[in-house]
Specification:
Its main location: membrane. It comes from Brassica oleracea (Wild cabbage). GO terms for molecular function: iron ion binding; oxidoreductase activity. It is found in: Membrane. It contains 11 helices and 4 strands, in the order ββαααααααααααββ. The strands form 2 sheets. A two-stranded antiparallel sheet has the order 1-2. A two-stranded antiparallel sheet has the order 3-4. It is globular. The chain is 58% helix and 7% strand. The protein has one domain. By secondary structure, it is mainly α. Helix 1 runs antiparallel to helix 3, helix 1 runs parallel beside helix 8 and helix 5 runs antiparallel to helix 7.
């Protein structure tokens, strides 16, 4: 078990890998709560957010806290099962390199994207699963940051918790690397649901899968498209569920996404 020294106290990497992403979720969401008051950056008006969504914000907070509690329990169990002794940990540290870190990040990103695409899409195709499970997330017609993990507990387990566990196992990352990867994945997921289009946002520059892309999926016209999350759009493009869109300025301020019709001959 590897330890980090913080303010004179030794805290295990497993502990940090479990709870740091939860802290990151609420801190990063809080930043977007403030920015959400600026209408010029919003993909929907504040009025739409208050009137169109089908769930209260207090219920969203409770739902997210429940999912994070379940994720923390499963993460602790996973780290216990896969934990290595100090000698193995020291060996891992000794052979660490940026190339290894990049490889592990890319593998983890591809694994979690693949898992989430097919589970997510199936939850839309299966009417029972959509009605009783996935529709809970789509009560947020106008997404906002801290609603990113507002899901039915079973969906949270299948989509996020198991997907995260698979990405951890297949990438071969250490608990210390997991701290950074899952914090990064958390920030990306919150960003995709923030409901804002911010100038210079690096996630909008480097990823086609961003807040506007995912906003399309939350609208009625886009519910059968843009299933990919949270990093790439490759599965949507490969399997024909990619819906192109334009981002246009609203007369009242802010932006809105509009689908682009593509001819069948193209």
């Amino acid at each position: 078990m590897m330890m980090m020294m913080m303010m004179g106290f030794a805290i295990s990497d497993e502990f940090l890998g479990t709870f740091v992403p939860i802290m990151v979720y609420w801190i990063y969401s809080g930043m977007y709560i403030y920015l959400g008051s600026m209408e010029r950056y919003r993909l929907h008006s504040k009025v739409d957010e208050d009137e169109k969504n089908l769930v209260t914000k207090s219920a969203v907070v409770k739902g997210v806290l429940l999912q994070q509690t379940l994720q923390a329990i499963i993460s602790v169990i996973l780290f216990k099962i896969t934990g290595s002794d100090d000698a193995d940990a020291a060996s891992t540290t000794q052979h660490f390199s940026l190339l290894l870190l990049a490889r592990q990040f890319i593998i983890a990103m591809l694994v979690i994207d693949t898992w989430q695409y097919f589970i997510h899409r199936y939850m839309h195709l299966n009417k029972f699963l959509y009605k009783h499970i996935h529709s809970q997330h789509h009560r947020l017609i106008v997404p906002y940051s801290y609603g990113a993990l507002y899901n039915h507990p079973l969906e949270g387990l299948l989509l996020d918790t198991i997907g995260g566990a698979l990405s951890f196992l297949f990438s071969g990352m250490s608990p210390r690397t997991a701290i950074f990867f899952f914090s990064f994945a958390t920030i990306k997921t919150v960003d995709d649901h923030c409901g804002l289009w911010l100038p210079g946002n690096p996630f909008h520059v480097f990823f086609s899968n961003n807040s506007a892309y995912h906003d399309v999926h939350h609208q009625l016209y886009g519910s059968k498209y843009n299933f990919s999350q949270p990093f790439f759009v490759m599965w949507d493009r490969i399997l024909g569920t990619y819906l192109p869109y334009s981002l246009e300025k609203r007369a009242s301020g802010g932006f809105e996404t509009r689908p682009i019709k593509v001819s069948k001959d193209e």
